[in-house]
Amino acid sequence: MIPDDRKYTQEHEWVQVEGDAGVVGVTDHAASELGDIVYVDLPDVGAEFSAGDSVGSIESVKAVADLYIPVSGEIIEINEALDGDPALVNNSPMDDGWMFKVRLADPGELETLLDAAGYEDLLGK
Amino acid sequence: MSDLKQTPLHQWHIDHGARMVEFAGFAMPVQYEGVLAEHATVRDAVGLFDITHMGEVFVEGPGAGAWLSGLITNSIIKGEPGKVTYTAMCNEQGGTLDDMLIYRLTEERWLVVMNASNHDKIVDWMQRHLPAEGVTMDDASDRTGLIAVQGPDSQDLVGRLEALAPHVAPIAELGFYTHIAVDGPGGEWIVSRTGYTGEHGYEIYLPAGAMLAAWEELLARGEDLGVRPIGLAARDTLRFEACYCLYGHELSEDWTPLEAGIGWAVKLKKKAGFIGRDALAAQKEAGIPRTLIGLEVEGGPIAREGCPVLAGDREVGHVTSGTFAPTLQKKLALALVEKDFAEADLMVEVRGKRLATRHRALPFLAARVKGDPRAERALS
User: Which of A57, A61, A64 faces B36 most closely, judged by CB atoms?
Assistant: First the structure.
């Protein structure tokens, strides 16, 4: 089941609203497709981005994938634990393996993202 | 993937959760449970690889040995039947056409094992150089299955195969880079103490029709040893740690085996010479311009194949292979660099970012191939 407490993107990221911020990570599907993740390159705290920007990368043993930001805003926190333990993304992509928090510049952008049912449809295709 | 060649285990791989990818015209399993777990299985216990994509050509006749010798860089004529030799095959300019294994089956019968990606090129090259008489070539690639059994428990496991049980003693006595040929289900089976992992291991060439039964028997009889199927992704990380060359990465027609660090397999003094000898001798005389080195990138991303290597602002080479080394828990790279910069402070450029490196001695991980399959080893 896809949790319905957050929004999703076509690029297999999720964003969960926490006050005026969004917590961003990648989905179970993305983590499993990438395989064993060995390095996550996260954006700098304080950097500002627009929705859809590439803000970092996720590396598995075999491949590198871009990390996109689903909503516009300033990075206010990154998950420091991923530096020492990138496997958190495989083990707990939807919780402990979160990537960064962004201050939502335009909460209205959330409406353009997929809900759980929409994301499930995407995976089903 | 429907127009790809399939191995006899194709359906088995799919049924057992393998992720299938195209590799050299074949549909091959890249991973089953995950590359890190599979890598660890081979280092700690034993794993099975379907490497049927490799090309096998039998060469036979009174002139076969001398003719083969003239096509390859290493020396094979002095070897007794039972010997296996690693060699390069070069063009006239000394560029590497492929690296390969040569089995001396009898005085006059040989087996040449080449990379799948170079199979058509090498068969064509051999045919073009085939003498009018005295040597016959038989490309057996489509009817030959190949299972690699690799890891500290590989000797125990191989001996449990019913077809090989009568040969347990000679298999136990096989030295590194030797083989035996036996009668098994479907015809001739060749078992060699060879591999591409840095572990004690065997490669079993067998008739394609006998392969699925042998594979399933190995998995069933090795359950207590923790045997698992291993995909191409872990095959790559395993060979990378042991610093075995991979064609298209460390080896290419654009540079010589001397540059790629396999000069030990180039015998310039071979009496009858070989194709590429003069070019290689001239390069050695003039000074080998490039050399393969090991680099560690601390922190940051992985420097992968193709990343530029820099000394100051000058590009002095490129990464040939780079990955996370699971046993060593480090981000490492093999790089081909200009000789004068082989010991310089070097940086690698990854997606526009320059990263500091530290030199690491090769091989990154010493191979456990000479005797004790569980030998302690120094980590680079």
Answer: A61
Burial class (CB in 10 A: 0-12, 13-18, 19+), B28: buried
Which chain B residues touch A35 with a CB distance below 8 Å?
31, 34-35, 233
B301 and A CB contact within 8 Å: yes
- Rounded Cα gap, residues A18 and A7, in angstroms: 12
Name the minimum distance, in Å, from the CA of A41 to any CA of chain B: 7
Fold adopted by B1-288: Gyrase A; domain 2 (3.30.1360)
Q: Under an 8 A CB cutoff, do A41 and B30 touch?
A: no
Tell how strand A21-26 and strand A37-41 pair up. Answer: unpaired
Across the beta sheet with B201-207, the strand order is B179-184, B187-192, B201-207, B144-150, B47-50, B228-229
B205 close to A29: Cβ distance less than 8 angstroms: no
Listed in order, the ranges of chain B carrying CATH 3.30.1360.120 are: 1-288
Chain B residues with beta carbon closer than 8 angstroms to that of A64: 301-302, 304
> ipTM, 2 decimals?
0.85
Buried b (16+ CB within 10 A) or exposed e, B331-360: bbbbbbbbeebbeeebbbbbeeeebebeeb
**B252, exposed or middle or buried, with CB in 10 Å at 0-12, 13-18, 19+?**
middle
- Please report which residue ranges of B146-206 form alpha helices under DSSP H: 154-158, 168-173
Cβ–Cβ contact A91 with B under 8 A? no
Cβ(B68)–Cβ(B103) under 8 Å?
no
Interface test with B, best of A41, A61, A80 (most B CBs within 10 A): A61
- What CATH topology corresponds to B289-380? Elongation Factor Tu (Ef-tu); domain 3 (2.40.30)
Task: List domains and CATH numbers for chain A.
Answer: 7-107 (2.40.50.100)
Name the DSSP letter for residue B366: -
**In a 10 Å sphere around its CB, with 0-12 CB exposed, 13-18 middle and 19+ buried, how is residue A108 labelled?**
exposed
Measure CB to CB from residue B35 to each of A35, A39, A57 and give the nearest one: A35
- Averaged pLDDT in 10-residue chunks for chain B of 380 residues: 90 97 97 97 98 98 97 95 98 98 98 98 98 96 98 97 96 97 97 98 98 98 98 98 98 98 96 96 97 92 96 98 96 98 97 95 93 76
* 3-state secondary structure at position B103: strand
Kindly state whether B302 is in contact with chain A, defined as any CB-CB distance less than 8 angstroms. yes
Taking only the tens place, the pLDDT of each residue in A106-123 is 999 999 999 999 999 999
> Pick from B31, B237, B301: which is nearest to A59 by CB?
B301
At B348, the amino acid letter reads V
